[in-house]
Design goal:
It contains two helices and eight strands. The model has no long low-confidence stretch (mean pLDDT about 90).
Length: about 140
């Protein structure tokens, strides 16, 4: 049995809005939207990976708040764990630095206006329920 590799996704929330990031790479994912994040390195805590990935991908200083219940399969051996997160006071505004070419803050009523990556849809549904948004 292959050991699972955890990928952390950030549900970055600010004033009730969720940050979505549009992929620019790899080609098969380009143009679709996701929760930013990345792989947890060996020996790294998921919360620390989330902070590191958000710094690398978006140039921000964020803090994890809580894990969203559930895990979602990605292509084997990866599984997605999602954490809510917020910008730390004094953090720069998010900007697409790596693997993304656009960012959008989505209010709960607009969560479904972007074409999410298939593997992120169940996590976004869970977030929508938490934000009091309509399901899809």
């Amino acid at each position: 049995m292959t050991e699972r590799i955890v990928v952390v996704g950030a549900a970055l929330l600010d004033a009730g809005r969720l940050l979505a990031a549009r992929r620019s790479a790899p080609p098969e994912l380009a143009g679709r939207w996701e929760l930013p994040g990345g792989k947890v390195e060996t020996g790294e805590r998921p919360e620390d990976a989330l902070v590191r990935e958000l710094r690398e991908e978006l140039g921000i200083d964020a803090e994890p708040v809580e894990r969203v219940p559930g895990e979602w399969p990605l292509r084997s051996p990866y599984v997605l764990h999602v954490w809510t997160a917020r910008l730390r006071p004094g953090s720069a505004a998010p900007r697409p630095l790596q693997d993304h070419d656009d960012l959008r803050w989505l209010t709960p009523d607009r969560l479904w206006e972007v074409p999410w990556l298939d593997q992120d849809v169940p996590a976004v549904r869970e977030l929508a329920a938490r934000l009091g948004a309509g399901a899809r």
